[in-house]
Amino acid sequence: xxxxxxxxxxxxxxxxxxxxxDALLRGEWQPGEKxxxxxxxxxxxxxxxxxxEALTRLAGNGLVETRPGKGFFVRELSLQELEDITExxxxxxxxxxxxxxxxxxxxxxxxxxAIHHRLSKTPRRDPxxxxxxxxxxxxxxxxxxxxxxSSCECEPMMSLSENLMLKTExxxxxxxxxxxxxxxxxxxxxxxxxxxALDRDVDLATERLVKHYQHSVxxxxxxxxxxxxxxxxx
Length: 234
Fold this sequence. Notes:
Structural class: mainly alpha
Number of helices: 11
CATH topology of the largest domain: Four Helix Bundle (Hemerythrin (Met), subunit A)
CATH architecture of the largest domain: Up-down Bundle
Number of strands: 3
CATH superfamily of the largest domain: GntR ligand-binding domain-like
CATH class of the largest domain: Mainly Alpha
Largest sheet: 3 strands, antiparallel
Strand content: under 5%
Distance between the termini: 43 Å
Order of helices and strands: HEHHEEHHHHHHHH
Helix content: over 70%
Number of domains: 2
């Protein structure tokens, strides 16, 4: 295969991964639902091979499950998993945040402030589908949380943080229509976290980050998401 053909195929695979990730994070499929590579290939106008490669990448991020002999499935919801993910995020991101605040320079401050500004000016809800979180806001939200720990200069921590955040986002999207999610003042939480980070107040920033993550769990629990999902017999 020529270098050009390989590059084209790689770009198609990355685009498909992005499209599928967005669809998963928007909750377009139910937890546990089987993902058919052939059908998805038609939807995204790529080969089945490209789709399979994209799904395999997403399985590496924890958004998709692979079952031997059965194929690909949307990740199941689990209260125990959500609690475990949150506990791990609180512990690992607290360490990364501490290092980031110690090592961050003015360039880091400027980048973090700029990302927060864009995030604060972007509507959290999709104007066409108010029950959903907008993809643009979700993207900026991920950027903000990655930026705040980016100066830790520890790639394994950054990679772990991103994977855990994506898994948590599945739960947040499914809980989005609930009153608890609508009423939550996420913007205030982000602003207070930013202020503590820029002040280099490690203890306060860590405390606010942990509370921010725990609030996400509380919203899912208050939404009755997992009980409702269980009652559907999924």
